[in-house]
Amino acid sequence: MENGSITRCGDKSGTLPSCAPLATGYVPFQQKDPQRYDQRDALSNGTLFPGLNLPFHLAVPGSKVPAGNRADLQALCFVVAELGLYLDTHPDDAEAFALFKQFSKMAKEAKADVEKANGPLTQKNTADFDKYCWLKDPWPWNYEENEVK
Amino acid sequence: MFIYEKKLQFPVKIATPNPKLAAFIISQYGGPDGELGASMRYLSQRYAMPYAEAKGLLTDIGTEELGHLEMVAAIVHQLTRNLTDEQVKADPAFASYFVDHTAGVYPTAASGFPWTAASMQSTGDVIADLTEDMAAEQKARKTYDNILRLSDDPDVNNVIRFLREREIVHYQRFGECLRMVQEKQDQKNVYLYNPAFDKNRMAKG
Q1: Can you say whether residue A115 is alpha, beta or left, with left for phi > 0 and alpha for psi between -120 and 50 degrees?
Q2: pLDDT digits (tens, 9 = 90+) for B131-173
Q3: Contact A71/B at CB under 8 A
Q4: Residue B192 forms contact with A (CB below 8 Å)
Q5: CATH number of the domain that B51 lies in?
Q6: ipTM for the whole predicted complex goes beyond 0.90
Q7: Shortest alpha-carbon distance between residue A131 and chain B (Å)
Q8: Prediction pTM value
Q9: B62/B42 Cα distance (integer angstroms)
Q10: B165 HSE (CA, 13 A, CB side)
Q11: Phi-psi sector, B77: left (phi>0), alpha (psi -120 to 50), beta
Q12: Which of A116, A122, A127, B33 has most Cβ atoms within 10 angstroms of its Cβ?
């Protein structure tokens, strides 16, 4: 909340007040305008922000995300969700909100592409199709869902 | 309300069924620090939140956790698909799950203890709840660390790595939210009132 007036820390660090009430918990606030991955790397790493990427020593360096329009959509939706959580605690960051709007628009377009190719993503959107194709296999948890066709 | 989207948050594609792995990964579905507990904890706590930032964050993270619950279920489902009787007999840990649930997905800890609301809290106290939520994210992160120790399947670890990183991001956001909440309290004593309950006393000052 006090960001801005304080000297900028490194990207893996955040701001703390110089004095604070005793017996309270303090996590450093992530600073505005943090470094960002592109959407594919964001999904692959599980965060949009390199500063918050803190992997376990046994983990592979980045998760493999398959190619294709479904994974593209997952990546765009992930960035929207990640920026949403950031904005919940940084609601006044206008730049982040502009980015949120940009990615929401891209996700909406990608959603339309996926629906055109694979069928509706929500039951409601089945109304845009010629017949009731909502039940069509595979469902998201099926192995075949992620097979490259 | 909630609307279902027919897609996972992150792709789950496990090439090789492996009931042994499924028998402990099920803990992140219905274990004490699993995704069912996470989603129920946050989505229940939000009603007593006195501040919009906390209502929003608990709603948004709670909703994401429902997506993680589905991902963990997808891992367990794919690890246990097309099993033979021999494969089940060969793995005692999975056989004890199998006798009750076959290859169905059931919310239980790896130890066999069924999911219980006793592993979570909704205290009606904003500082107590957010502090619990930070601990919950760390406990889930620890479980994912331990799954990475036990699993050598790259398809599984691919997903587990993603879920583990989400715990760290959520910890950061809950920590920021706790600070926003504490800054709204009396700075000489943040514990003077429970802002969700002592509304009349706070108005009198």
Answers
A1: alpha
A2: 999 999 999 999 999 999 999 999 999 999 999 999 999 999 9
A3: yes
A4: no
A5: 1.20.1260.10
A6: yes
A7: 17
A8: 0.95
A9: 5
A10: 29
A11: alpha
A12: B33
